[in-house]
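Cross-check.
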Amino acid sequence: MSGYDASATARVVVGVSGSLGSVTALRRATALARRLGAELWPVLAWEPPGGDSAARRSPAAGLLVEEWHRLAKQRLAAVLDEIFGDVTAPGVPMHPVVVRGTPGRALVATADREGDLLVVGAGRRGLQRAFSGRVSRHCLAHAVCPVLAVPPSPLESDLLAVHRRNTWHLPMDTRGL
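Predicted model, tokenized:
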């Protein structure tokens, strides 16, 4: 980020879903917000199951939307509590936001100032890359502010390998643990 004016950054906006990639991005965003003296804006985007058209077809659409919004707020609070523990703030001013919409559009709409910094998880490695990373690509293409795409933690690939072995009931070599 050489040549980047840190004093112009008022907010560090980060996408949070609870995935390992978003947790890695949240940790990086928190460290950047501390270093830049900026506010941390964790954003969780949500959509009604089946999309907006499915939600409008329901006779109790208003009640369902309120409930889904409440559940999204609960999910964001749970992720932040799990990451930061009992600490009410991670050492910087924090403004958690729940936005209705697709993740890419919600993040770009929230990080709408040139002085913002948008932090997103860069997606997975390997063969799964072709089917993931849509959010980070959307943000890189449409954001008006700088975007930091955080690569996955090296531990994520190890965890996925263990999960695959458990799913297929394959023996695991624990000598290296």
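Residues 126-131 have pLDDT under 50 and may be disordered. The beta strands are 11-15, 39-46, 97-100, 117-121, 147-150. Passed to J.P. for a second look.
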